[in-house]
Fold:
Amino acid sequence: MNRERWWPCELRGRSGELGIIENELRRVADGHGSTVVVTGGAGIGKTRLLAEARAVADRFGVRTGSVTAEPNESAVEMSALLSALFGGREPLLSRQDLPPPPQPNQRFWFLRDIEALLEKSALDTPLAVCVDDAHWVDAGTAAALRELPLRLRDVPVAWIIAARPTPQPTPIAKTLDYLESRDLHRVGLGPLRGKAVTAIAAEILGAEPGRNVLALTERAAGNPFLLVETLLGLQEEERIETVDGLADVRDTQLPRRVAHKMRERLAHLSVPAREAVIVAASLGRRFSFTDLAQMLDRPTSDLLAPVGELLDADLFIERDAKLAFWHDITREAVRAGVPVSARCALDRQAATVLLERGALPVEVAHQLAASAEPGDEVAITTLLQAARAVVVTDAATAADFACQALDLSPPQHPQRGEIVSIAAVALHTSGNSGEAIAFADAALRDTLPAEQEAQVRLSIAGMFALSPDARAEAGRRALSLPDVSPPLQAAHLACLAYNLLVGGRVEEALRSMPEAREAAAATGDPRASLVLGVAEAGLAYADERFDEAYELFAKAAREGLAAGENTRIRMVQVYCAELLSHLDREDEALAIVQEGLASAQRDRQDWIYELYETWQARLWLRFGRISDAAAVLEGRFELEDGTRAVAALDGAGLCAMARAAMHMADSRQLRRAGEIGKVMLAHGAPVIKQHAAWMLALTAVGDGDMKAARDWLAGLADKPALPRFPQDVTDEMVLARIAAATGDDLLARLALANVRRRAAANSGSLAIAATRAYVQGLLSHDARELRAGADGFERCRRPLERAMATEDLGICLLASDHEAAVAALGQALAGYTDLGAVWDARRVRSHLRDLGIRRRLVVREPATSGWAAMTAAEESVARLVAQGLTNREVAERLFLSPHTVNSHLRHVFAKLGIKSRVELARLGALGAGGERIGLGATDPT
Structure:
């Protein structure tokens, strides 16, 4: 796939743009990561600039892999990325090191494997990955270019991406917009200026250009391709006269290759050459001599002369043993000069040739979609095969292929039912417009029998990647169909109850349960019974009957295991862990999560791994491991912008991320949480809006703006509410602080009602009882209740909540027992400091200073920079990275995910004031116990 177009002169007029790339490549050579995006229209010089960038990289000792994306491979998963990394004479990576090809649903793990290989290779020699014509990359490569540059930003890898501006919201356009929001370097190429144009003309013509030549070059409007075409055309027509070192022409008429339309230019070719170039334009930008001969139905020997003529005319070039068009503009102009009907026929013929040669259906699907006639069996079958191949990895493209196949297939076509089914699933999965989904719904109803349509809708209702509201709507539509079998009805009723519940529509879920129970009992359908059992358990959880909910979830897990429903069991088990943590059974909860993580990693189940990773972080936060939780959640949600958060757990994980950032005084992460929360609040199911409002309230609290926190909660459409599915039983502590600080009686009553109801339903939980005591004590200024809360949190191993209760106890005692108040505040300060709760420690320290208490501040001010500021986890990561281990190797040593290691590493860099692993290695190794060895005066502490 790699190619370099011939260019007849040095790079001119791009010193500033090249300087940016050169500086970034120099940084990469010094051990830093970098991302540069080059944008500009066709013919503006992107490819030429990338060629120069590769030469600069070679000069700096940076190994380069490059690819030019091809339009006919835009649906082939990871094709561009794999060519850049494993193609060429000296590939960046060895295919022998790559695990077996991933299953369609294992992109997550495949990218992790690629990330590990790149990191390991880059630590030996800096790398540069160049992707030209990125506007044509496949969705998998677009996803990789969104993730890998950020995951590897601390590793010496340069990502240089060139693309035309794309007005449509394609995957790569979204990727480039996202990267720009994360501070990449964008290089926009505009028209060349006069001096550069003159220099190019002088170099090509071998003399300084005269007045008429310069007048002609001005008509290229600074476009390098058109400029060179003009100059080569003048030479081709032998119009250049050089006198006394000045190259000029007698008139200002444009050369034929520029002035004439391509059709007129082709008219000057021989008939065989003209036929060859027109036919080649349907084969793509690059093609083999054999394919061209087959299209023309001629022996290859008969094409030697016409191909030679096209090479001489600068219409073709030869690269990597294949023929190619001199430029995209050239090919597009050739195609534009061919009547549409003829072009479609040639495209259809080319698709047949490529398929016979062994091309994949996805490689010719776009071509077939644009050229086939209704009833074309090969096109229908090929488009269906292509849609099947990409429905998991690129649902939007799968929907396009399926809809095109639907347009080509007659009403009674035997494959029409499957085509409609794939189209419906793909349109829902891709989050397509309501109009497109309505089209799929109509096609389902017009094409499939009710039973088959209900089956398709059941698969949509069970897609965890969709929002609960979309899944519930699929169920409602299925239940409105006539003559659906009782077992399928029972399955839909159970799924509907579950989807309503996890979407935050608890009352609707309750109302749906009687009918669902009756249907499940009547049919005895095992899947319906399992889903209904999970919904029953979830309703008990939402109603805060935690002991009962745990028993119901545990029962559902046993039944699911017997039925072989392994995926749903994993979801059930995390709720078991959640409930155990509410019931003070922390060790059991963590054991479930750790076993789930190991199982998901072993079986390469990406969404289950992320599920357990998020839940583990939430548990760690509850148990006072704030920095560890923050590292996991930062890595887990590094690419989140608010649009991907569709599930309740996404919202809960993001709330935990905001809570951790608040306590750690991480202003950058708090600001990001606020941006994400606003996007979530603007759309989504009620459960997402509840989590978003709570997250925004937490960010406001972290900014010290209690009024804004209250306003975010009060701004919900119906009434203030905390997230209930899932929930944190100590959230009311922060809610009560907001209420007390703003004097908001409504929030105070909500906090009191929540904790009292929960405590009444869960009398055996120390954490719940302690939360009730704290909230009651804070809102009534009752020191006895606050002390009971602090003692209860100590017994159930909730150190952060204990410190909060002790702090507010100290403030409450100030009016009655100054010495006891100071002692309590001192204890709170010690607790916060031990936990790394910097924000809280500052607040308590300020209280004590306001009281004039300085000599009693026995707790040392925590370090904020240097090795002394690191947590134990950060120190462990730093020690191993300094020894040369990759993120994956560190992750395996410390039983973390590579993304969590990456988060820890960024904190290490920030605290040490460095920006790369190379600088960390230069600082020296860490000795036993985390003490620096041999650093002398360079020790940053």
